[in-house]
User: Which sequence fits this backbone?
């Protein structure tokens, strides 16, 4: 089969990769579409030392599984492969399983390929009303909904979202939907214009926010958030970067700021929001590339001003 491979030095499309074979309780999925996100770009800069096939935002259909009624189903999938028996898993926190593998990020080949294998329990059926080009956003949209799982958000909350990329725009839409007053701050005129067309207010933002979400993907995001959050306010960190950077946490101590790390999130509300038309994702797509030109897709995704590039495997 075809798969985009990263060997630590270069990306290349391989055409002779053996098809993965699902183990017991796993499912084999034929990929329709997969999305390139900032984490994928950071992997090519050394993030987590990953080697193999990246890609963790995807939609496809099941071609083999132990559960007969799952075969043929159009699905998306949670990216953490947990052991299921450790204290974290027993507590329902499989995404924090110390032995976990993470699709296309840690120890498990991802979705920039014709086929991908996941635990069957990780799969979620996609409603018929949600097209592939929307379903491919479920994983990052779930990460946006995780903010609501971690922090009280509602009318009267003054929120700032730092970062005008795809995740920042999704987070802003989720916070607006929860009733917060939201300002999106970024540095790319076209991205900000697209956000405004979605009804999102854009910055600059003044200091004194109750909640600041860092979705910049930049080392300076936390410092920028600390300059905007009010005393005893909350910062939610969505940024992962490959490089090292200096942190001055004195403002967090002095102002008694709560800093919350935030990663993956719940798929059910993301699917429901897309099915109900409450989140707009179509305006975020800049280009769709065939899997045969996946390297070109990565080049495009890294360009300034680009929000989302999709890779189409054909399904």
Assistant:
């Amino acid at each position: 089969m075809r798969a985009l491979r990263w060997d630590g030095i270069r990306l290349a499309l391989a055409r002779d990769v053996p098809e993965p074979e699902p183990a017991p309780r796993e499912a084999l999925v034929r990929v329709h579409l997969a999305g390139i996100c900032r984490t994928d770009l950071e992997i090519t800069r050394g993030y987590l030392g990953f080697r193999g096939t990246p890609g963790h935002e995807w939609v496809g259909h099941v071609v083999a599984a132990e559960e007969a009624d799952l075969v043929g189903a159009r699905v998306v999938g949670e990216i953490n492969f947990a052991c299921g028996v450790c204290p974290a898993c027993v507590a329902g926190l499989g995404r924090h399983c110390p032995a976990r593998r993470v699709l296309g990020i840690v120890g498990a080949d991802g979705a920039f390929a014709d086929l991908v294998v996941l635990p069957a329990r990780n799969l979620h059926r996609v409603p018929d009303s949600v097209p592939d080009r929307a379903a491919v956003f479920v994983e990052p949209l779930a990460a946006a909904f995780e903010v609501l799982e971690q922090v009280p958000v509602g009318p009267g909350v003054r929120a700032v979202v730092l970062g005008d990329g795809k995740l920042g725009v999704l987070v802003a839409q989720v916070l607006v939907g929860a009733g917060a007053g939201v300002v999106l701050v970024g540095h790319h005129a076209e991205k900000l214009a697209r956000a405004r067309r979605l009804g999102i207010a854009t910055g600059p933002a003044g200091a004194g926010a109750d909640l600041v979400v860092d979705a910049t993907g930049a080392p300076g995001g936390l410092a920028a958030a600390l300059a905007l959050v009010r005393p005893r306010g909350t910062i939610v960190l969505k940024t992962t970067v490959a490089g090292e950077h200096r942190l001055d946490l004195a403002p967090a101590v002095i102002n008694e700021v709560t800093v919350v790390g935030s990663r993956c999130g719940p798929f059910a509300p993301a699917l429901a929001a897309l099915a109900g038309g409450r989140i707009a994702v179509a305006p975020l797509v800049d280009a769709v590339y065939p899997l045969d030109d996946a390297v070109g897709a990565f080049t495009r995704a890294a360009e300034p001003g680009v929000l989302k590039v999709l890779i189409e495997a054909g399904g």
Notes: Residues 138-150 form the longest helix (13 residues). DSSP finds ten helices and 18 strands in the chain.
